[in-house]
Each structure stands twice: as C-alpha cells, then as structure tokens.
Amino acid sequence: MELNRKKILVTFLMHLGDLTLTTPFIRALREAAPDSHITMLVDEKLKDVVLHNPCLDEVITIDKHGRDNSILALLSCAHNLGKMQFDILINLHPTIRCSFICVMTKVGMRTGCTHCLLKPWFDVLTPLDRKKHAADMYLDVLTQLGVKELSHRGLEIFPGKENRAFAETFWKEKGVLPSDKLVGFNIGSAVETKRWAPERFAEVADTLSARGYKTVFFGGTMDEDMVQEAVGHMKTKPVIATGQLSIGQLAAAMRRCSLIITNDSGPMHVAISQRVPIVAMYGPSHPELYGPYTRLATVVTAQPPCPGCAAGMKHHCRDAKYNMRCMKELTVKQVLDACDKWLC
Q1: What distance in Å separates the CA atoms of residue 300 and residue 194, rounded to the nearest whole number?
Q2: Regarding beta strands 214-217 and 239-240, do their DSSP bridges make them parallel or antiparallel, or are they unpaired?
Q3: Using CB atoms within 10 A of its CB, is residue 312 exposed (0-12), middle (13-18) or buried (19+)?
Q4: How would you write 121-139 as a 3-class SS string?
Q5: How far apart (Å, rounded) are the C-alpha atoms in residues 88 and 106?
Q6: Which of 50, 52, 92, 249 has its Cα between 20 and 30 A from that of 10?
Q7: Taking phi first (over 0 means left), then psi (-120 to 50 degrees means alpha), and beta for anything else, what does residue 35 get?
Q8: pLDDT tens digits, one per residue of 25-48
Q9: In angstroms, rounded to a whole number, what is the distance separating the alpha carbons of residues 242 and 327?
C-alpha cells in the first residue's frame, strides 16, 4: 500500500505504557511516508506522550473516560474526523471504543486491526502478532501494509520546552543540586500483582542513599499511599515527586536521573523514552512481550520463576499455592546487584 503523500489518521486509545510503545511505529511511519500529513487520535489524559512528537503533524484527543464517554460523543468524534478527509486510517489496537470510532469515520481506506465484530467494515485487516514484543507488534502493522524498511529510534517522548523548564525549576525547589547523583523510584502499578513490597523499595533507597545517591519517588496520585508507606519505612529522607507531575513533566524530570528502579508500569516506559537506565522488577507479566524496549535495562525476576501466571497474567493472586510468590521471592539483594551494573 502506498503511504507517502497521503493524509493519514492513526488511532490508539490504550494506556500510558501502551501508547509509549507505539512511538517506534510513529517514527517508522514518518520514515516510510515523509511527505504525508500524519494525525494521531489519543486519550486526552495521555496527549503529552505524542503532543510534541516531530513525526506527527497533528494530535487530536478525546476524553474517553470523561465527557466523551458516550455513544453520541464517539459519533460526534467520528463525524468531525470524517470532515477532515483522511485518505488512510490505521487503527493500532482492537478495543471496541476505538474500533467503533474507526468504522463510523468516513475515510478513503480503513486499515490496521479492529474488534472482531467490526472486521467487515475494514478494507485491509492487519492483525496484531501477540507473540512479538508490543512495540514490534505495532511496527508489524506497517510490514503488513507493505513497508519494507522499519526505521525507528526506540521509545521516544518529547517533553517540550515548557516541561523541560518546569523540571529544571522543580529540581531546584526540591533542593537537588547539579552535583547530586539522583536515583528515581516508581513503586506503583495499576495491577496489584506487579507491585513489589514498599518496604523493600525503602530498603533499596536507604542503601543507595548511604552510598551517596539522592533518591526520589515518582508516580501518580494513585500511588501516593504506597509511596507514603515506603517512606515510613525509610531511615533517610527522599525527594517526593509523587502526584506532582504531568506526563510531560515526568518525562523531563526523569532525564535528570542516573537510574530508575521500577515495577512494570507506564512510567517505566516513560523513563526508557528518556534514555535513562532502568532496573525493572517483573513478576506476572512477560518481559519478552511487554518488557523494557531498550538495552539500558536489567530485568529482575524471582528465582526460580513462579509458574502461576504461565497461562496468562493474574490481576489478583489469592491462590495459596502461589500467593504472589513471583514478587515476594524477588529479593532486595537481587535489585541492588542489578543497580550496581548501572551505578558503578
């Protein structure tokens, strides 16, 4: 399929980590279609991930869990998109909401993947290959559309000038000096079974603080209780950035860190997009499919691995046979040993 010199709409309404994992696709699409006008539809709350991406000409948002959480709002969105007269629509995930918008939008050609009930309305189906890493899975959509060379630079979030300035001021206000060696912690996760214990994060933070590193806790407002629990176990005083940063500000702030220690979560991928080395704790999820998309990472898992999620990730683990063994048996020593690789 010829993609160059076309007006292209890319649609994607998934979560923070998932959206960040589409950024290699965005770069590869621009390389394949340098003279095309490329627009992307995303969730308004996550727009910072792509807002300043130089490979996009335009970003359109909907508030999928807010004002646009209705059939009428989705139809209105599709109607407005249709008036923009796109030649090609590429849908990157088969969620029902996004698929519905796609089939209701008047376009020259609908491609990509879609919900199984809406397949008849797509001109070219490019199903996702679930055996590949998620970032490669999205890139594969371009391969199926005939792109021969997939040129990209890994995960990319461009914070923008304002967010970079905000981060610089933020660190000054928090008392972080230019000479300080900063290690960041992201201890939250939307999925309970992905969370390493707060007291273990506290022990790692205290140990690194004793070695001369200044520690900082990131995360969103939903992580504040977990961070307070971790800080309550600490003997040293960290910087608290939890709940204080937008996604763009978070990306800019993370650039200042020498290392990010993190659960498998959206902010982990944000850190990777800023070329910061990470140590990532993995339990129920599969790093070969959703792991760090970078060479600047060490994945730490319990030894031996727990087989409890072999058939698919459990969001809750109350089985007495397993009882979150994958995270409970992942030790502080393992994490500190992994940190040594990046901090020595």
Answers
A1: 12
A2: parallel
A3: exposed
A4: HCCEECCCCCCCCHHHHHH
A5: 10
A6: 249
A7: alpha
A8: 999 999 999 999 999 999 999 999
A9: 22
Mark out the alpha helices in the chain (DSSP H runs): 16-20, 23-32, 71-82, 96-104, 134-144, 161-173, 198-210, 224-232, 247-254, 266-273, 287-290, 325-328, 332-343
Task: Indicate the residue type of 136.
Answer: D
> What SS3 string covers 36-85?
CEEEEEEEHHHHHHCCCCCCCCEEEEECCCCCCCCHHHHHHHHHHHHCCC
CB within 8 A of 303, min separation 6: which ones?
329, 334
Q: For residues 126 and 164, what is the distance between their CA atoms, to the nearest angstrom?
A: 37
Q: Which candidate, 122, 233, 136, places its Cα nearest to that of 185? A: 233
| Burial of residue 204, with CB atoms counted within 10 A of its CB: 0-12 exposed, 13-18 middle, 19 or more buried | buried
Q: What is the pLDDT along the chain (344 residues), one digit of tens a residue?
A: 999 999 999 999 999 999 999 999 999 999 999 999 999 999 999 999 999 999 999 999 999 999 999 999 999 999 999 999 999 999 999 999 999 999 999 999 999 999 999 999 999 999 889 899 999 999 999 999 999 999 999 999 999 999 999 999 999 999 999 999 999 999 999 899 999 999 999 999 999 999 999 999 999 999 999 999 999 999 999 999 999 999 999 999 999 999 999 999 999 999 999 999 999 999 999 899 999 999 999 999 999 989 899 888 899 998 888 999 999 999 999 999 999 999 97
3-class SS of residue 278:
strand
Edge to edge, the sheet with strand 259-263 lists 239-240, 214-217, 182-186, 259-263, 278-281, 297-300
Distance CA 192, CA 317 (A): 9
